[in-house]
Amino acid sequence: MPKWSLVQRLLQVRLSTCLFITLCLIAVIQFFASYGYYKYEHLAQESLRHHLYVQHNPKLITKKSKPDCRYNDILQNSKSVHSWDIPRKFNDFLPNGIINGSYTPEDCTPLFSVAILVTYRNRQSQLDIFIPYMHSFLKKQNIHYKIYVIEQQDERLWNKGLLYNIGAKQAMLDKFPCLILHDVDLLPLDESNLYVCLKQPRHMSASIDKFRFVLIYKSLVGGVLAITSDQYKELNGFSNRFQGWGGEDDDFAGRISKHNLEILRFPPHMSSYTMLLHKQEHKNDDRHRIMEENEHNSQKDGLNSIRYRVSNIKTHRLFTMIKVRL
Ligand code: BGC
């Protein structure tokens, strides 16, 4: 009996040791497999200000008596928020200075005007976190910005590309020179992540906790992307053909490279985001086929070919809501 239990014990030790070694091996392999992407190609921190696309909205009323806002300190002072510190309830959020989802710094003249476009359907609990969090984050950035939420109201398949085109059209009518296309479930974690356009398209969410802060592929532009309104027009926006989840951003990346534009990124610590939890949407099984078909189609399918009905544009204090039926 005692002999048997010794064998048993030895076997147990061996088994757990084997399991431990296997897990370590998997971790090491995974680390090396993704190492290149942790260290994705990005702009050097010292050079960031040379890449900024300095342009404010011509409609913005500025006072000569106010000095220009400064951005160097924001870009240099990395201050990270932990995802677990993000408030899930915002009872004490003060909307001071925000009108119709828009804010302008009080003490200085902003050099940037940015339209934040958020495509949306059935994610009320995420919107309730996103809106106050983003205002608290953006108000510290010395920029003029406005948040637009574009809601798909019908029961048809989700069409994010078309919703972005609708939001971009409105933001351009409102004369915004820079668009930031933003998923509602992503929250920036570092205060040095300045929410402005660069002279080239900028993929902002390169380092997301859900993906273990790894850039999952080099041409990824999904999540959060900043692009000037002129470039968006030049690319003819997004394809309107992607229905369901996925693909429209990869197609957009194709348009970017066809127009010889380059996707730029800030360093990883400045590009970190947390993703709010949600159920995975139904994937569009046709996305690869549509992408292939779209190869030579971008001039006919996009910003210039959108069909929809705006059921209403409503200005809330914290955002402008564009409700559409496709
Ligand atoms: C999809 C993209 C998505 C990416 C990351 C790809 O398979 O086509 O739309 O952004 O995965 O989730």
Structure description:
The longest helix is centred in the first third of the chain and has 37 residues, at 2-38. The protein is 31% helix and 16% strand. The chain folds into 2 domains: 1-34; 40-325, Spore Coat Polysaccharide Biosynthesis Protein SpsA, Chain A (Alpha-Beta Complex), CATH 3.90.550.10. With 326 residues, it is α/β, with parallel strands linked by helices. It is globular. A hairpin with a 4-residue loop joins strand 10 and strand 11 (320-325). It has 8 helices and 11 strands. The chain binds beta-D-glucopyranose. Beta-D-glucopyranose (BGC) binds next to helix 7. It is found in: Membrane. Belongs to the glycosyltransferase 7 family. InterPro entries: Galactosyl_T, Galactosyl_T_C, Galactosyl_T_N, Nucleotide-diphossugar_trans. It is a single-pass type II membrane protein.
Key terms for this structure?
Spore Coat Polysaccharide Biosynthesis Protein SpsA, Chain A, binds beta-D-glucopyranose, single chain, 8-stranded mixed β-sheet, 11 strands, 31% helix, 326 residues, 3-stranded mixed β-sheet
